[in-house]
Specification:
single chain, mainly beta, 7-stranded mixed beta sheet
Length: 124
């Protein structure tokens, strides 16, 4: 079964840093864009950043200065690095993949796949 496995969430103090890895598992034909979104309590889910297979990025305007994304195509992983975290970064962070996978006799093309989310709490 194709799934995204997120990790790295937890409690971090303001001003600290945090790394959130995400691994794609399952039988994958091709992975297109990967990215991270977040849902701040009381708000809608919003874009943090996405990254193409070639490394081009698309950042949400509010987080561009403090967020870095990287991907490892060979290992089918993507990671979000958050620098100088602020209390307003407290949210559930979701990994996202745009991909095509194969079940044996059928292609599922250009699917949107979401992780279950990992909680980040910024507090002293």
């Amino acid at each position: 079964q194709v799934q995204l496995v997120e990790s790295g969430g937890g409690l971090v103090q303001p001003g600290g840093s945090l790394r959130l890895p995400c691994a794609v598992s399952g039988i994958i034909y091709i992975i297109y864009d990967l990215g991270w979104y977040r849902q701040i309590p009381g708000n809608q889910r919003e874009l943090v950043v996405t990254i193409t297979p070639e490394g081009a990025t698309n950042y949400g305007e509010s987080v561009k200065a403090r967020f870095t994304i990287s991907r490892d195509n060979a290992n089918k992983t993507v990671a979000l690095q958050i620098h100088s975290v602020k209390p307003e970064d407290t949210a559930v962070y979701f990994c996202h993949a745009d991909l095509t996978y194969y079940t044996g006799n059928h292609y599922y093309r250009d699917q949107d796949l979401w992780g279950q989310g990992t909680q980040v709490i910024v507090s002293s």
